[in-house]
Amino acid sequence: MKNPRIVVDRTKLRENISFIASKLKNHELSIMAVTKVFNAHPQVIALYDEFPEISYYGDSRIENLMSYQDSKKQKVLIRLPMISEIPEVVQYADISFNSELETIKQLDQEAEKQKKKHKIVLMVDLGDLREGFFEREELYECIQAVLKLENIQIYGLGVNLTCYGAIIPSSKNLGNLIDIQNEIKQHYDLTLEMISGGNSSSLYLLDSPKDILPKGINNLRIGESFVLGRETAYGGEYEQMHQDAFTLVAEIVEIKVKPSYPIGEIGVDAFGKKPHYVDKGNMKRCIVAIGQQDVALDDIAPKDKSIELLGASSDHLLLDLTHTKQEYKVGDEIEFLMSYGSVLSTFTSKYVKKEFIR
Ligand SMILES: Cc1ncc(COP(=O)(O)O)c(C=O)c1O
């Protein structure tokens, strides 16, 4: 059984990593590769391991950090730790991102128990309104308290943008991170190892004619760009990179000419939503064996542009093949281009097989 499957072109992925890695090296930025988008798949990790330019692996799930303990890279928990997972955080993460003093105190106690020093990156919220200290006073009070803890090292500062609030990184907002770093140096005589200036959305600043990445930012955390070959502030595709290193393949299980408009009283669909249909007369309708349990409809696009996506229930994806040049038949495979969301969800689905080529 081989379908549905996600096909990873190793050569294209390697070329993507090389391109971004040399770009970051030229700007003296260390690299944290974010591994959650491919669910820390061991074969992708083995490929990332080939790159000495990658110093850190970051993931939001402890289970993923646990899965690559043998790798030499430093492992970073990039979601704020849950109090209930603190023993695992200290055991499996070298570094964790934090914004709550209570959590840090518990990390300290656990680190003492495990006879370890645990490193933390303090997250600062510069407007995206997800995680991080919003008030500088609270951050400085926290630092003062943490400096008294024996088993915690303040390793750096970090910010995350273009996630919840979709805020674009700029020299203005990222400049605040450098100001804070300078104040910390002044007040506490504390030199921080890592100033992590965001994710794939900060990459555009390395080439922008209008703005720059402020001096002092020395790390970026890269998930999507490696995988999909684009920066994520404006969605700009790098022509030197591959946007199709990952392809989704699903198999046709039915092709029939049927009406485009359902017959009978219309209620709600499989997900409780009231659907809207346009009557286009009869069409060549096709079902492929993949569904919303594996992937959201908006996150994939057929490579054959003449195929139209009609909709999906949990296990069935419906396509319109009326205008295709190719004569598809039952058993044929349809290929889809992928987005961040579809790489994430299909790698997480146990029903979607993973194939590695080249
Ligand atoms: C804290 C943090 N840093 C970095 C990333 C990586 O973001 P991207 O995939 O846009 O590079 C994420 C998202 O996965 C994140 O939550």
Identify the bound ligands. pyridoxal-5'-phosphate
Terminal-residue CA separation: 21 Å
User: Largest beta sheet, briefly?
Assistant: 8 strands, mixed
Total beta-strand segments: 16
CATH class of the largest domain: Alpha Beta
As residue ranges, the low-confidence spans are none
Number of helices: 9
CATH superfamily of the largest domain: Alanine racemase
Radius of gyration: 23 Å
Give the tally of structural domains.
2
Helical percent range? 25-40%
- The average pLDDT score comes to 96
The appropriate CATH architecture of the largest domain is: Alpha-Beta Barrel
Query: How would you classify the helix and strand content by structural class?
Result: alpha/beta
Strand content: 15-25%
Form type: elongated
CATH topology of the largest domain: TIM Barrel
Order of helices and strands: EHEHEHEHEHEHEHEEHEEEEEEHE
Please give the structural blueprint:
Elements (H helix, E strand, L loop, with lengths): L4 E5 H17 L3 E5 L7 H8 L4 E6 L2 H6 L6 E4 L8 H7 L2 E4 L2 H13 L4 E6 L12 H11 L5 E7 L12 H18 L5 E3 L22 E4 L1 H5 L17 E14 L22 E7 L11 E3 L5 E5 L4 E4 L12 E6 L1 H9 L4 E5 L1
Parallel strand pairs: 1-16, 2-3, 2-9, 3-4, 4-5, 5-6, 6-7, 7-8
Antiparallel strand pairs: 1-10, 10-11, 10-15, 11-14, 12-15, 13-14
Helix pairs in contact: 4-5
The structure holds pyridoxal-5'-phosphate.
Could you characterize what this model shows?
By secondary structure, the protein is an alpha/beta fold. The chain has two domains: 219 residues, TIM Barrel (Alpha-Beta Barrel), CATH 3.20.20; 112 residues, Lyase, Ornithine Decarboxylase, Chain A, domain 1, CATH 2.40.37.10. 26% of the residues lie in helices and 25% in strands. It has nine helices and 16 strands. Helix 4 packs across helix 5. The radius of gyration is 23 Å and the shape is elongated. The relative contact order is 0.15. The mean pLDDT is 96. The site of pyridoxal-5'-phosphate has 14 residues, from strand 9 and helix 8.
